[in-house]
Design a protein that fits this description.
The structure is a homodimer of 114-residue chains. By secondary structure, the first copy, chain A, is α+β, with helices and mostly antiparallel strands. In chain A, 56% of the residues lie in helices and 22% in strands. Chain A binds a DNA duplex (30 and 30 nucleotides) through helix 2, helix 3, strand 3 and strand 4.
Chain lengths: 114, 114
Amino acid sequence: MEIKAKFWIENKGEVVLGGGKTALLGAVDRLGSIQAAADEFGMSYRHAWGAIKKIEQRAGFKIVDTKLGGKEGGGARLTQQGKAFVDRVDSLLSDLSRMVEKRFKQKSGKCSLL
Amino acid sequence: MEIKAKFWIENKGEVVLGGGKTALLGAVDRLGSIQAAADEFGMSYRHAWGAIKKIEQRAGFKIVDTKLGGKEGGGARLTQQGKAFVDRVDSLLSDLSRMVEKRFKQKSGKCSLL
DNA sequence: ATACGATATGCTAAAAAAAGCATATTGTCA
DNA sequence: TGACAATATGCTTTTTTTAGCATATCGTAT
């Protein structure tokens, strides 16, 4: 058997940001648009946009800086604050995953039922 | 903001046992019946029974020992193996929760965005 | 002016998970 | 034998989550 874990950040009891979405936000910044990031994750623009909107609303500050119109139709990337936030959450989450896995192995080694 | 975590055990990619259900199984053993345990958790007998059935099926061994008929209609409690399993999972899970909380506090102390 | 590509949203539909309803079965005891 | 309390299941309904469709807006380059 294996252990599985899921982590997320909440603010005032509402979900702000979990594992899957940090990757999406990272892609937005890397690719320069929500559209491209959504494509990369195989999700609709509509869904990605809605998710980002909810994250910002619950976090209480702007995370994605979007511009619209122009030659390429517009674009998006992370605000300075947003980038710092995503980076920290991402690092925290992967850190925690590692800890959990390690701890599980310690315990399961001593128990045939795990 | 706060960190939240959820842990569960899987077997061959299927969910076996998570946080909420260890408590249910504990109650079954303590109270001597699935019905009483379900009541305590405010869930239907149907739901509790189904959950237990699924857990056993996925774990691959018998966890609850039920008897039916008789003066009190029947009853249930954990098998020896089931009890050992639940105890270990329960202890692992609360252990992990504590670790996560602790780690989060360490990290968040250094960062205004968390 | 017009076309283009991306953001910005409302609304609908489909899929998954949880809850609830109904009913049969079982074994002791009065 | 009949009542009782709990197990054992099938089915239906509700709720929640997720996905998809349609459309308006915006600003540069042609």
